[in-house]
Amino acid sequence: MFSSSTVSTLLRQSIIPVRSKNYLNRPRLRNPVWFVKKTRTLHNEQFTEDNTAFLNEVKRETILSAAQRSQSNLLKLAHGEQNGQLAQWAPGLKRTGVIAKKIGQYPLWTKDGQKIRTTLLQIVDNEVVKYIPPEEYRPAQEPRQSRNWRKPYGCLLVGAEHGDPSLFTKEYAGLFHESGVLPKKHLCRFIVSPEAQLPSGTALTVSHFRVGDFVDVRGLTVDRGFQGVVKRHGFKGMPKSHGVTKTHRRPGNIGAGGNKARVWPGTRLPGHMGNRWRVLRGLRILRINPQYNVMWVMGSNIAGNTNGIVYIYDTILPLRRHGAKGVPAGPPPFPTALEPLPADSGDIWLEDLHDFRKLSITYSAGSE
């Protein structure tokens, strides 16, 4: 039989106390070495004003022709001229997401006067660059969930926001050569079902979602650098009265004495704050503007700066997926909206919201 001291010693050696699962969550300040360099070094080409104006005119015409080409590709897809018959929506299929820009916050009100804080997200020039089938998709880092070998997923590369081709490197611009899409400023890979694949050059608009749908939004938090425990973790700090010397904003005792004699993993201490990826799940779309591709999403705590980039896709929450109770009836646009809403159709509001274009007080003819 073991003594009590021996048992306690064995327990201390076998059980490692951890205060939080914060491993492998360090901020990344630079891209991996195998990333293709995006921007090139600019030199003074000694162009005259006429040459500069001519080049700018060519760039504008190129961007306009690219936008018309993406719309024509969407029409061909709608009429079944590409890849044969389109697949129908079924539960369990995963659609692509979109890349959006966080442009600000705005309040909305329900019909009973309740205020709702929302965030405006604009989908800027989203186009499909490439589709990678499941047998060829090899991610650099395997996801935490196990791969479904019976129904494997493919990968859809989506680009957003047209950029000046003269500002990108030859290697980066070569990523768009086969697809015929202009070089984009932002790229993102979305895991999709093989039935939800889209041809290169297909435009993705705000019509990809419906008012009332629930989405997940992934963004990069604001980088605030090295911060103390008061700002980083919300510590109260020491009193500002007599007897306190230079410890007003210090963490204090961290409880690492005794037999431990070390710092527990996960202890809240000063360190780098921000620059981490955060996902908000189950956010509802309250309003859509087809003209400017803007959506009003419930919530005011979406990660990122103003004009920062976020990624939007269908939620993975079981009670808020397509087909659940409280979600708009009918299948979503699959694989995307083949007939986008006209730009002059006006905003589309959720039924429970108060539309300010309509009167809130009406008077009858006989009232005084």
TrEMBL record:
Keywords: Ribonucleoprotein, Ribosomal protein
UniProt KW Ribosomal protein keyword: yes
Region: Disordered, residue numbers: 237-267
Pfam family membership, one: Ribosomal_L3
Molecular function terms from GO: structural constituent of ribosome
Entry GO CC: mitochondrial large ribosomal subunit
Gene Ontology biological process: translation
Superkingdom to which the source organism belongs: Eukaryota
Family membership noted in the UniProt record: Belongs to the universal ribosomal protein uL3 family.
Name this protein carries in UniProt: Large ribosomal subunit protein uL3m
Native organism: Anopheles quadriannulatus (Mosquito)
